[in-house]
């Protein structure tokens, strides 16, 4: 008997070796190392269709987990029947797409074995082996068959699938199920087996939706349907009535717009991009770390996912799709600006999932209707989507104020058809060095933004000789659109939205709230890397230069502070030591070193200083509250908790509006108290009764607190500049647009006079946000003629700003306005 067993074991091993010379596998799905599976209990593997080739793949991959393999379990006969079973049988008709649901006989036998003794249990692990991952309809029947040969009745087709797609084989493991728990009170093996089969069929559909996505309609069919969709037909009818234009001409124009917009995902193209981008990432990055992915895998099963990343670089498009593809999730359809639809590059992006949109189409009703209907088709069919709520890339490194156009279209689509739940997934991408660093620097210095061209793309090949550090990609807390609407508009789903042109009067305010929520969630998922810490530290120093030892200590102190009071439970902090971070920053040419006999100095030139503001601004929101508290403590050496609390409550709404901070009014006090406790533990301040005192100015901790205060100081200077200008002009004598323009010019002048290397200091959009928040807080009001009026209600803000800023700085600003 042992001889037969050895022969069978050798035969299986030989077959696996031959198979693995032809294929290359990648395991996706659940993290089986933390699955909680018990190797001592019997394990069976649920497959979609019976396939010996897939069984060999599963056996080989399971051996890598350190478990007893299915074939070993089979030979040991520790469980009746085989350790594999399928939930579908192959259809007799080779042209039929779906298999036939079955209840495996061996499953009933194994259920009987389990029910025979109270303590027995069987662990069921659902597994899918995919020879390629293409959900689309291809013109070639052969391609359809070869994507999932399990649906076919021929071993020959499996052979061709291995030959053609074997190098792109994905093995999806799901979390194990306890058959004992699933059985519950059932005493019949047949009932248990049927119950398990139903659960696995549902699970199989969820995995298909999550990994492959819904089957893609042929692009030509989708595009040709658009002119006949309700919104487009309505606009065409109105245009005919108003302008006497022919219907054929308008339909032809609508078809042209649809063809210009629509993506055309090709998995041949995707595989090409996979190989290309793998080479690119290995060339330019030191690694990509993915965080908080598991919750996404769960919500992606039965929902339409809309990814809403921050927009730092053109690389964002490619990086997120690459990560999702390699982590076993379906590729999203990506909203891209029409400026990227350039020769060659545009075609590659379109085949990788990009659909193109014009920057503005407010005055083109037909284009707007076509775009609306295209998006509606994408959402209702369950395709995952990706768009940037910031609109364009951030040149300053801050998360920009949202442009809610795409969110408004998403909401309108959902009101028309909410059968498929929509979930927004915020994504934060933290770069140590962005690809466009040089061009951003030029634009911030006033250089006109260049239009993208093929020559520019080819020119970036020179960058492959450089290192761009590491990238962190963090998936934030999902925002469920149904729950969001239920909280803010109970009964929304009972209203009549059958008129496609109907736009509820409550929708604009809802879209604004949704935009702010999504943007806040992006910032909640922010990660902190060594370049962020170096930027925060050295930019707070006079002349942006520091002693090396002091710089290292302060960076590590910041990291330790954030570990003691993390911004959120998703906050990622750098590992290692400050000296290693500094060496890494020097490799990336982020800072410069000046040798000195009494200790090296780390400094920045003008280019490096402006560039570092970008990486400081990436994480400024994380440091905003402790920095504000540090400002209050430094400039008023004796503070009670009530003083700190009341001052924070006055200033916080403006910081929240500008930096998309996540604390609400009812949670702010707890955050303030926690940071005061952390400052006390670190020795930055001491508590004497109800009062807090700063550390002595000659102590080691004082420079750290002083540096912390500097992070938010320029923001408070901007507030003081704008409110002082408003007060000098007088109530009712200046409009919001004039105050915004004059404040911007004054800030530019101050930055030139005093060497403030921070482009956001004179960012007009930030002054606009401040003015809007002042109006919202009713500290000022805007009259019908557009002028701004104010009274004593503005005083609490100006009084606090005067107390926080030092006298010399106040006089400098006042003398300039």
Provide a quick synopsis of the model.
With 817 residues, this protein is of the alpha/beta class.
Explained architecture:
By secondary structure, this protein is α/β, with parallel strands linked by helices. It folds into four domains: 2-212, no CATH class; 264-524, Glycerol-3-phosphate (1)-acyltransferase; 545-652 and 662-694, no CATH class; 702-816. Strands 9, 10, 11, 12, 13, 14, 15 and 16 form an eight-stranded mixed sheet that branches. Strands 1, 2, 3, 6, 7 and 8 form a six-stranded mixed sheet that branches. Helix 10 (230-243) runs antiparallel to helix 16 (365-380), helix 22 (530-538) packs across helix 23 and helix 29 crosses helix 30 (736-754). The longest helix is centred in the C-terminal third of the chain and has 28 residues, at 702-729. The chain is globular.
Blueprint of the fold:
Elements: H1 2-22, E1 25-29, E2 43-47, H2 52-64, H3 70-76, E3 84-86, E4 88-89, E5 100-101, H4 105-116, E6 123-131, H5 141-147, H6 155-165, E7 169-173, E8 177-178, H7 179-183, H8 189-212, H9 219-225, H10 230-243, H11 247-261, H12 267-284, E9 288-291, H13 294-299, E10 304-309, H14 315-326, E11 333-337, H15 345-351, E12 354-357, H16 365-380, E13 385-386, H17 405-416, E14 422-431, H18 437-444, H19 454-459, E15 471-475, E16 479-480, H20 481-488, H21 507-524, H22 530-538, E17 545-547, H23 548-564, H24 578-587, E18 592-594, E19 601-603, H25 606-618, H26 620-635, E20 638-640, H27 641-659, H28 665-682, E21 685-688, E22 691-694, H29 702-729, H30 736-754, H31 764-776, E23 780-782, E24 788-790, H32 795-804, H33 807-816
Parallel strand pairs: 1-7, 2-3, 2-6, 9-15, 10-13, 10-14, 11-12, 11-13
Antiparallel strand pairs: 4-5, 6-7, 6-8, 14-15, 14-16, 17-19, 18-19, 20-22, 21-22, 23-24
Helix pairs in contact: 1-2, 4-8, 10-11, 10-16, 11-16, 16-17, 17-21, 22-23, 22-25, 23-24, 26-27, 26-29, 27-28, 27-31, 29-30, 29-32, 29-33, 30-31
């Amino acid at each position: 008997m042992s001889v037969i067993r050895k022969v069978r074991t050798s035969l299986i091993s030989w077959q696996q070796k031959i198979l693995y010379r032809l294929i290359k596998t990648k395991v996706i799905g659940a993290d089986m190392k933390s699955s909680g599976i018990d190797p001592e209990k019997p394990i069976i593997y649920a497959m979609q269709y019976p396939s010996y080739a897939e069984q060999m793949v599963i056996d080989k991959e399971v051996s890598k987990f350190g478990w007893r393999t299915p074939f070993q379990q089979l030979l040991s006969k520790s469980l009746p029947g085989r350790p594999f079973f399928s939930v579908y049988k192959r259809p007799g008709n080779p042209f039929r797409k779906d298999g036939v649901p079955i209840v495996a006989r061996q499953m009933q036998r194994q259920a009987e074995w389990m029910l025979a003794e109270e303590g027995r249990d069987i662990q069921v692990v659902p597994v899918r082996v995919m020879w390629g991952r293409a959900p689309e309809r291809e013109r070639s029947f052969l391609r359809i068959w070869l994507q999932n040969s399990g649906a076919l009745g021929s071993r020959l087709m499996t052979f061709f699938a291995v030959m053609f797609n074997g190098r792109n084989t994905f093995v999806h493991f799901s979390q194990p199920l306890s058959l004992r728990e699933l059985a519950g009170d059932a005493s019949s093996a047949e009932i248990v087996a049927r119950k398990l089969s139903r659960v696995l069929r549902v699970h199989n559909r969820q995995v298909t939706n999550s990994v492959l996505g819904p089957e893609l309609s042929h692009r030509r069919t989708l595009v040709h349907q658009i002119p006949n969709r309700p919104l487009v037909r309505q606009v065409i009818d109105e245009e005919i009535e108003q302008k006497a234009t022919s219907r054929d001409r308008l339909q032809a124009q609508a078809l042209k717009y649809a063809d210009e917009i629509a993506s055309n995902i090709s998995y041949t193209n995707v595989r090409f991009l996979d190989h290309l981008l793998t080479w690119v990432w290995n060339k330019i990055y030191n690694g990509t770390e993915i965080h908080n992915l598991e919750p996404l895998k769960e919500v992606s099963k039965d929902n339409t996912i809309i990814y809403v990343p921050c927009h730092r670089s053109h690389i964002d498009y490619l990086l997120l799709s690459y990560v999702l593809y390699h982590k076993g999730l379906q590729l999203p359809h990506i909203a891209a600006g029409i400026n990227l639809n350039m020769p060659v590059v545009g075609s590659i992006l379109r085949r990788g999932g990009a659909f193109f949109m014009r920057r503005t189409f407010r005055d083109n009703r037909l284009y707007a209707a076509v775009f609306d209907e295209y998006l509606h088709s994408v959402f209702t069919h369950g395709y995952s989507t990706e768009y940037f709520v910031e609109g364009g890339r951030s040149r300053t490194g801050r998360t920009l104020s949202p442009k809610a156009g795409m969110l408004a279209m998403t909401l309108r689509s959902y009101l028309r058809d909410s059968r498929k739940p929509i979930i927004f997934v915020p994504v934060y991408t933290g770069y140590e060095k962005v690809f466009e660093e040089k061009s951003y620097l030029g634009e911030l210095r006033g250089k006109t933004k260049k239009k993208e061209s093929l020559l520019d793309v080819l020119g970036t090949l020179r960058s492959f000789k450089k290192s761009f550090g590491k990238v962190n990609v963090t998936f934030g807390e999902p925002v469920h659109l149904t729950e969001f609407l239920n909280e803010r508009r109970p009964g929304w789903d009972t209203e009549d939205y059958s008129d496609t042109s109907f736009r509820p009067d409550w929708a604009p305010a809802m879209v604004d709230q949704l935009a702010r929520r999504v943007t806040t969630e992006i910032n909640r998922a922010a990660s902190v890397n060594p370049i962020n810490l170096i930027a925060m530290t050295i930019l707070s120093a006079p002349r942006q230069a520091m002693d090396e030892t002091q710089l290292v200590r302060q960076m590590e102190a910041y990291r330790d502070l954030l570990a003691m009071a993390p911004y959120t439970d998703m906050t990622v902090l750098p590992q290692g030591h400050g000296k290693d971070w500094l060496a890494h920053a020097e490799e990336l040419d982020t800072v410069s070193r000046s040798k000195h006999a009494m200790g090296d100095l780390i400094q920045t030139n003008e280019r490096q200083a402006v560039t570092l503001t970008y990486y400081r601004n990436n994480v400024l929101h994380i440091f905003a509250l402790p920095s504000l508290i540090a400002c209050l403590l430094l400039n008023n050496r004796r503070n009670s908790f009530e003083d700190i609390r009341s001052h924070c409550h006055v200033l916080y709404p403006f910081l929240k509006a500008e930096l998309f901070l996540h604390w609400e009014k009812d949670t702010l006090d707890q955050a303030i108290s926690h940071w005061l406790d952390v400052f006390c533990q670190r020795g930055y301040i001491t508590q004497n009764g109800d009062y807090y005192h700063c550390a002595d100015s000659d102590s080691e901790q004082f420079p750290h607190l002083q540096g912390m205060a500097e992070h938010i100081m320029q923001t408070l200077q901007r507030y003081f500049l704008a409110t002082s200008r408003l007060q000098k002009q007088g109530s009712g004598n200046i409009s919001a647009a004039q105050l915004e323009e004059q404040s911007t010019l004054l800030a530019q002048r101050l930055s030139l006079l005093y060497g403030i290397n921070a482009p956001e200091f004179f960012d007009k959009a930030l002054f606009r946000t401040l003015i809007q928040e002042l109006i919202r807080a009713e500290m000022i009001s805007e009259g019908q003629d557009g002028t701004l009026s104010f009274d004593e209600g503005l005083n609490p803000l100006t009084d606090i700003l005067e107390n926080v800023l030092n006298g010399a700085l106040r006089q400098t600003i006042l003398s300039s306005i």
